[in-house]
Structures are given as C-alpha cells and as structure tokens.
Amino acid sequence: xxxxxxxxxxxxxxxxxxxxxxxxxxxxxxxxxxxxxxxxxxxxxxxxxxxxxxxxxxxxxxxxxxxxxxxxxxxxxxxxx
Length: 81
What we know:
- The protein is of the alpha+beta class and 81 residues long.
- It has one domain: SH3 type barrels (Roll), CATH 2.30.30.140.
- Helix content is 20%, strand content 41%.
- The protein has one helix spanning 60-75; strands at residues 6-14, 20-26, 29-34, 46-50, 53-58.
- It has a five-stranded antiparallel sheet, covered by helices on one side.
- The radius of gyration is 14 Å and the shape is elongated.
- It starts with 5 loop residues before the first strand and ends in a 6-residue tail after the last helix.
C-alpha cells in the first residue's frame, strides 16, 4: 500500500543527464526526489512523491485540504482498533 502525502518543492537542480531533481519538504522531513515525471514543477509547488520520484503536481488548495485531513488523523487518540 502507498500513502500519498503532499510535499512542497523547496529547491530544484539539474543532475546527471540533465534530469531535474529537487528537495521536497514533508512537514519537518526533507527528501531529495527525482522530477523526471514532473519537469514542469517549480519551487513552491506541491507534489506527490512515490519511491523518490515526484509523480504528480497538486494545486495548493488540494494539498492544504489533504494536509488538514492528515493533521486530523494525527490528532486522533491511539487505541486498540
């Protein structure tokens, strides 16, 4: 199973073979990702990343709505089921 959590592109650069890469923030976590499938992504854009590859851009409203849902889930009390 894969979870799609939006991350925000902080910076981008060209790597070997002129392939675009970037650093994406997922809350306090920062990860380097490949932008080969989202070459139009610009700093500030929200992205969905799967196994280190950005696979989709999201508009800011959709990203913020998803992040709000995650915050709600995170605030739920832990239980046995």
